Structure to design on (1244 residues):
């Protein structure tokens, strides 16, 4: 899958809202304005965020959608007494015009027309409120600068005025928190707490505040069901240097089995106790780390108010979580075989049924999900499937709706970016296939994307190399033809956790996190021609130590490709490939065929034999 | 040439010092201690820096060498009453042991054993002095943190106590400042002042303080002779939003011709007037920009003391100076032809004389300099020549001395990294040649370095691409064999100015300066085997717009290779090259041959014909 945040998703929209007195955006805006005025504020900021800065915002935190109707995956509104604006990025210019009532809101481009300018022009000397649970300290600093530029001021409102008027606000998710089996996790939670606690002690730190649900899930070997695509429970935690921890979670989510699993060194308290626990840390004058990239400003403000000076430092779970252990890697490989079976059965089926033009995007995505559900340990999808036919393939964050649903038509490309959450691993794979005979331009561009994919897949690199350093390898073949893609090349992936995780990243944007053995990252160059077609080839890869070449004077790392599914040979123009590139495809296809043939349906196996023929041996058109 | 700062150089050591009462390091240290104590300080920091943060520190600012005897290109000392330490980097561990009296100074590794720790352990509660002219604000912040950690404090001493005891301190350089002809500069200084002043005005800035001599030289179309390798005059300047400027320079350096050249909009004042001018800016409450990366802390402290709040912003000349105009580019191309003639005559001569084993590094470097001096517009070398035979080639910052001088021996490699300052351009080129028949390992590694050089030379890339993004292209072929080089791949180069300039850079280290048309950058991958040999292949290249390939959907940039000199064919293992790589070498050699043959000596022309034969056509061993 492409860029984190590039998929449109709005959990609130998936459920029919309960009846409410406030039915229209105009009514909702008026009610919010009245509440804001009641509190003596000149205005209020409504971001699209929850208390954990989750990528997929749960229904109870879909305030921007409730207020404005806008359901894109990024944006925020600023509501003043006499004016209101919504800020969206370039991906959502059209969608926001369709969804937002422009008599109520001015629609502005987030980066080209910065909110600071709008606030400066409209706030006057007033006081703008924000919910400190829904913003990072960096965001608060930017809001503050904008208010000061306007001659006004910014004040925190931990008691969100919008929530006061949102009568039919969905309840917080209440799925149980469950133990994650050691057979999948590979390292007992007590050991994880022990080694992270020891590092805190060495650094003279008393405690680390954890606000990222996936960090808590990893640290305590637990999972949950509070988010549609990510198996986490919404929770907070404090890890102490003595390896003990406090877990703050809604009371209904804990079970005796969970309590037994967590053990005596982990105390459990209701979510409401988190803020008082921060006060206690402050009162103890404790040295506490908090991650400014992911923790809410609330945490910093509360610790500071209690007298503590929080140390701004990366979440201590982020790096160890990213470096998968051998058990996790074995699970991930196994999950990829099952995922490869499902996707390959799908591709074989697609080859049979797509040519007649009756299949549509929705039907294809449903069929694929059904095939995945058959796999052992399948729990849910890992993100909303992107199934883009023809010109929809060029919309990087495309998600099929009833209105947009398009039939697959001969002569067009079909891009499917999908993945699943298995107990033993998280998958994310993109294949682009030709429906019928592809055009020469599509083949040429597909092959350039493939060259980039192979360059990254086969690269060996020394220790301390970052993903930013490698990014160009995936783009070089496109660049030479004056082409590129406007998203990152690779994101970290969790194991039965977030499909997007840090700290590593393969991107043009500088990133200082070195690639380390056990890290999973996607390899997903693409090419998009607006209004015509989209191409993306995505496999997940794991960083591992490479065998030292003779004469090497420094150790090397390399990527192990995890994803198993054929790459459409009909889209490969072998005249653009060198021998080594052809060799990589043939070896990859051989591995796919040998691994999956015994596991897929008989008809798929037959099709797979042809689909994985060496690329040198004559062009096979489907 | 490799990394900025990677060359050992010490102008003070080139001249016999005048007689002094303080002859030994012990006497000098004692005198400094007495002076420091007299001023009520617990200690003093002695960096290797001048008032302009020049890369090549002039003799009058060689305080570290005078005090400690250490002549490396980077380092600093901290002198306390009862102890003293000198901090050097890994390149200078051995050299510092040879030069520094360890009964007087503890030698510490700059990064592995941070000065902050030593200061914290030794300063106690005392007051440490520093010269605010010799440190950037960032350096001062680090010193300050270290002192505070020690329970002490840091105070500025603009009246340097070391200077008070350095009786025979060399005079400040006094070469005249001279006009730089419009025929070379391509843009009248008044126009440069006009367009930079307009940008200041647009940004609401009143003035920019300029402390970098090369920025002043570029802006005013002047040059000087105050530094051995860089044709600048030591000076400060203030550029105003109305396009006027004040130039602060030692009075003896100005001539009537210069004054006429500068014109009425540029007022000239003695260097001593610079600080009062900062006071005046503060008193006017002016909005002033200063570059924190290159300006002395003195400038910030003085402006702040006068009531101004300096805006920390990149030197406004840096980017326009880096993007050469058409006149400059024409001059640079022309200078490279002359430089190529000199280097090619040298390589041909070397091929004749080196085989008998009588020639040494010194003799080779002298001969090459002599050939360069014949070229039109030659002014001086652009940096100390690196002429490293055999194992000396592996010392990235090697500079031949009487003691180190080594003969060129058959079977060894010889690395020559050299360049010159011509009125119309600055050159910097490295060639590595085999003396006699090279070993297979050397050929294999040379070819991998060459592959990296070619990958960068032939790369096309979109707008907004940075050098950091391209760096891996130069390393990829080495990485695949478990090899690498521990220096940057490319640095910016001025035109008849600094051989190392920013803001662009091709490096593993993230750099956000996009490559733009007209920027000059070196392309210099290498490989070094300690104690055995060194390889580096360096050409200068200019960024230019590329012709759009058919079907391109975004504009591309590419590199134009400027340097003209043959690459040793006997070191190329063509079995490691693909057709495109062989094609690049042959086309490059053809261009070298066609351009230089009419201009080189007759014997060189004959040799060049063979040395530039297509690499496919049989191996030619010298």
């Amino acid at each position: 899958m492409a860029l984190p945040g590039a998929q449109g998703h709005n959990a609130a929209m998936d459920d029919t809202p309960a009846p409410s007195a406030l039915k229209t955006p105009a009514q909702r805006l008026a009610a919010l304005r009245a509440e804001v005025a009641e509190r003596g504020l000149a205005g209020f900021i409504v971001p699209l965020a929850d208390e954990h800065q989750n990528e997929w915002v749960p229904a109870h935190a879909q305030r921007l959608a409730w207020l404005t109707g806008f359901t894109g995956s990024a944006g925020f509104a600023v509501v003043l007494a006499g004016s209101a604006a919504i800020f969206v990025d370039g991906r959502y210019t059209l969608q926001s015009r369709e969804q937002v009532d422009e008599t109520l809101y001015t629609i502005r481009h987030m980066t080209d027309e910065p909110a600071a300018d709008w606030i400066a022009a409209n706030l006057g000397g007033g006081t703008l409120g924000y919910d400190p649970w829904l913003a990072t300290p960096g965001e608060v600093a930017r809001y503050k600068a904008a208010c000061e530029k306007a001659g006004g001021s910014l004040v925190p409102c931990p008691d969100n005025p919008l929530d006061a008027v949102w009568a039919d606000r969905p309840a917080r998710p209440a799925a149980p928190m469950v133990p994650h089996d050691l057979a999948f996790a590979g390292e007992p939670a007590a050991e994880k707490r022990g080694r992270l606690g020891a590092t805190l002690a060495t650094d003279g730190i008393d405690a680390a505040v954890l606000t990222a649900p996936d960090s808590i899930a990893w640290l305590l070997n637990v999972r949950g069901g509070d988010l549609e695509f990510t198996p986490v429970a919404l929770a907070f935690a404090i890890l102490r240097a003595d390896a003990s921890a406090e877990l703050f979670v809604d009371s209904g989510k804990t079970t005796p089995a969970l309590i037994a699993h967590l053990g005596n060194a982990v105390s459990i308290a209701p979510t409401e106790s988190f803020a008082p626990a921060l006060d206690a840390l402050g009162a103890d004058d404790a040295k506490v780390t908090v991650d400014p990239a992911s923790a809410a400003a609330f945490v910093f403000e509360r610790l500071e108010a209690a007298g503590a000076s929080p140390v701004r430092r990366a979440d201590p779970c982020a790096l160890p979580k990213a470096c998968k252990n051998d058990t996790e890697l074995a699970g991930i490989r196994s999950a990829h075989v099952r995922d490869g079976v499902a996707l390959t059965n799908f591709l074989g089926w697609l080859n049979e049924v797509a040519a007649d033009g009756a299949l549509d995007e929705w039907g294809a995505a449903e069929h694929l999900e059904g095939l995945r559900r058959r796999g052992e340990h399948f729990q849910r999808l890992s993100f909303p499937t992107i199934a883009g036919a023809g010109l929809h393939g060029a919309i990087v964050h495309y998600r099929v709706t009833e209105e947009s649903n398009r039939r697959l038509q001969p002569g067009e490309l079909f891009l499917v970016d999908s993945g699943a959450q298995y107990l033993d691993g998280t998958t994310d794979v993109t294949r682009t296939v030709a429906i019928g005979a592809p055009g020469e331009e599509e083949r040429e561009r597909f092959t350039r994307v493939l060259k980039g994919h192979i360059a990254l897949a086969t690269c060996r690199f020394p220790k301390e190399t970052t993903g930013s350093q490698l990014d160009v390898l995936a783009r070089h073949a496109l660049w030479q033809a004056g082409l590129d893609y406007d998203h990152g090349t690779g994101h970290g992936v969790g194991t039965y956790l977030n499909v997007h995780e840090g700290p590593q990243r393969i991107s043009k944007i500088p990133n200082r996190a070195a690639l380390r053995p056990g890290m999973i990252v996607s390899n997903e160059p693409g090419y998009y021609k607006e209004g015509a077609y989209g191409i993306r080839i995505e496999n997940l890869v794991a960083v591992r130590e490479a065998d030292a070449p003779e004469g090497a004077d420094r150790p090397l790392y390399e990527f192990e490709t995890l994803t198993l599914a054929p790459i459409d040979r009909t889209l490969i123009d072998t005249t653009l490939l060198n021998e080594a590139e052809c060799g990589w495809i043939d070896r990859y296809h051989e591995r796919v065929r040998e691994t999956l043939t015994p596991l897929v349906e008989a008809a798929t196996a037959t099709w797979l034999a042809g689909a994985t023929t060496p690329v040198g041996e004559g062009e096979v058109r489907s």
About this structure: The two ends of chain A are 26 Å apart (CA to CA). Chain A touches chain B at residues 441, 459-462, 465, 468-473, 476, 479-484, 508, 510, 512, 529, 548-549, 551-556, 578 (CB under 8 Å).
